[in-house]
Amino acid sequence: MTQIDKTALRDAATVIVMRDSHVRPRILMGQRGATAAFLPNKYVFPGGAVDPVDGSIDLSLNPDVAAKLSEDSARPAPALAAAAIRELWEETGQILGRRGAWDEAPQGWRGFARSGHVPNAADLDFVFRAVTPAGRPRRFDARFFCVNADHLASDPDDFSRAEDELSHLHWVPLDEVRGLDLPFITEVVLAEVSARVHGTAPTTVPFFRNDDEAHLVTRLGGQSPLGQ
Fold it and tell me: Which among 25, 46, 215, 221 is least buried, having the fewest CB atoms inside 10 angstroms?
C-alpha cells in the first residue's frame, strides 16, 4: 500500500460529547466561522491540533483506549487525550475533569486550572481516526473521542466560558444532525457513533487513511482492511 505523505499532517483530537443517550441522543456541535482556513461555515465537533504542551499532561486512560490510540501512531496516547480535553474547554467552556488544585499548570492550560479542576481522561472512548485528504490547505491526522455528558464537571448548557472559534454551540438530536451543513468526514463519524448508540458497531476503531490511491479504511485492533 502506498504510504501517506505525512509531511504536512498535524495530529489532532476531536470530542463528541453525547447526552440523553438512552432517550433521544443529542451531541454537542458548533459552527466554524466563514473566514476559517479549515472547514469554513461547517458544523463540527469541538477539537483541534495537538499542542506541544499537551504531551506534558499526566493522564490515565482506559488501557484498551490507550492501546488503540498507540497503534500506528508516533504521538503518545495521553497527549492526544489531553488535546481533546483542552480543545473541549477552549471551544465550549465545558470541563472534562475532576475537582483539584493545579498550581503548576503549563501555559495553555492555566484557564482550565483556574476553574478548580484537573483534566480527567478516564471516561474518554476512542471511536474514529481520519486523515484529511491531500490538497487541502490544512491537513490533520484526527482522533475522534466520545464521552457522555454525565462525566462533565460543568453545566452542559453553559457556554459562557467558550472562546469565539465556534458559534451556535448547541445540543443537536442525533436523528436531526444531518440537517446541518456538515463536513463529509463528520457524516462518516456520525454513522459510526449512531451504530454504537444502537449497539451494532464493532469494538475496533475505523481508521480512514484517505490514501490517494485507495482511500483505504482499516480498523485499529488487528482486523483486516474493510475495503478499498
Answer: 215
